[in-house]
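A brief tutorial aside. Many learners find it easier to grasp structure tokens once they have seen a single protein encoded end to end. The record that follows does exactly this for GIY-YIG nuclease family protein. Read the sequence first, then the structure, and try to relate runs of similar tokens to stretches of the chain.
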Amino acid sequence: MKQVYKITYPTGKIYVGKDAIGSARYFGSPSMDVVNEDFSRLPDEVRRNYSVTKEILWESEVATDAELAAKEVEMIRKFESNNPAVGY
């Protein structure tokens, strides 16, 4: 199952990505340096107990890799996740 997903971090920022196999364990690959820097600014109680959510925005069993890539770009633009103030 091919999917485009949105990860929401406790920082309020998001990451939009794609997964060609639909793995429940895959949470993308944002820049860990940037994520860690943002996490360092969170209150201690948030850094010690937090949740990261994964929302499936779109999925298909028949889409081509090109269609998956195009849908990812569409969702990145829709959610503005390439804006550093919004996403990773």
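Self-check: The first strand starts at residue 2 and ends at 8. If you spotted this yourself, you are ready for the next section.
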